[in-house]
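Quick one from the shared queue. A colleague (R.T.) flagged Cysteine--tRNA ligase as missing a structural entry in our internal table.

Convert sequence to structure tokens.
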Amino acid sequence: MLQIHNTLTRQKQEFIPMVPGKVGMYVCGVTVYDYCHLGHARTYTSVDVIIRYLRWRGYEVNHVRNITDIDDKIIKRASENNEEYRVVTERFTRAMHEDFSALGLTAPEFEPRATDYIPQMIGLIEKIIANQHAYVGANGDVYFDVRSFQSYGCLSHHDIEQLESGARVEISEVKRDPLDFVLWKLAKPGEPSWDSPWGKGRPGWHIECSAMSMDLLGKHFDIHAGGRDLIFPHHENEIAQSEAASKHPFVNLWMHTGFLQMEKEKMSKSLGNFVTIRDVLREHEPEVLRFFLISSHYRSPLIYTTDALYQSRQSLERFYTALRHLSDAPHPENTRFENQFMAAMDDDFNTPVALSALFDLAHEIQRLRNKDMRAAAAHGALLKRLGGVLGILQTAPETFFQTGGETDPAKIEALIAQRQQARREKNWAEADRIRDELASMFVVIEDSPQGTTWKFLK
Ligand code: AMP
Ligand code: ZN
């Protein structure tokens, strides 16, 4: 039985999709005004593993991840750069796609851009006003009337009075209540704007996700996910708006990922303490980064250090060492390794426990290797198959060991060829000299009846 933690109930609960075998899932996407950082990698890799596992479990997943391509931060960045806002969002959308495909994230079925959904947002705001949950403020902006929505606070588990006392005391003559949030903002001169019944302006951030998710997945769907910073106010507001418009429950299951942190602080663009995905991928293989990201549970905080990346590389080396020199074979069914792996993933996608089942499997392969190569190969096929569910272990072991070192593999291959030539000529001194030269480059060579292979020593 697959159990998933629901932020709404703060409990793990059995996952029962609305339509048997099918899952509608909306994931809040990136605000595209800069390069993606490791915090993004953390959230979207978690989502990627969740989706891969749901599919492996036989569910058909309709995955929607939006692009926020209009917002205050985008407008600010465009004006700092003296660029059109669309030039900024196009550039960083392209960069995001490059980074996400380098990370091996499965592409969503739909990737709506907020600016393509303005009519749907306007339609939603009209409904919310008609249902008496929104009003036009004294400045002409449209606000959601938080006090009119009975269950406001259901996701963040705060009652409205608590939220009120926590809210910045805003002296505002335009809103009825400090918690009221904007649905439609009138444009200042020079800002991007769209026509609306309330004048030229642009949507508030929260309404974007309500409009795009309901348009693509219907007014009621299975899973909505994002980082935990989105619980309040973004997702709380999404529930209020969507249900105020449709008068229908919005989402069954809310999933939130823990923060990736630098020291004690959340990594974020606005705090300026971020490391971009592309910076890390210049020095580390994507698989190493992915391994680091899935080595803790998706809801736990994760602290980024370069040392943790080196440890991830070492863990992967243990797996790839187990996979070396195995022929193709059908994987065994119903092993304790697969059962442990599934039990861990069924328990709210517990990747660290699932990885420990894979470590046991790698150990078993090494044990079998000495006595039954066919059984070792079959278990190797299982390791590869289960690794694939987590998006790891799909590289050929030789390639894995030959990447991520500091020396050009072509130079190493040339030295190995020279050493083989020396050995053929029984020039042992030269062969040893080349072996030492390779060792100085942290390359170890292994001679076997199949030939000579090499790897970087870490
Ligand atoms: P943004 O581009 O800031 O709108 O964020 C896009 C997604 O990344 C949201 O789901 C955020 O919650 C998530 N996110 C941003 N920073 C972090 C972080 N440091 N750790 C984990 N997730 C993050
Ligand atoms: Zn959102």
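The chain has a mean pLDDT of 93.
The chain is about 45% helix and 15% strand.
Added to the table.
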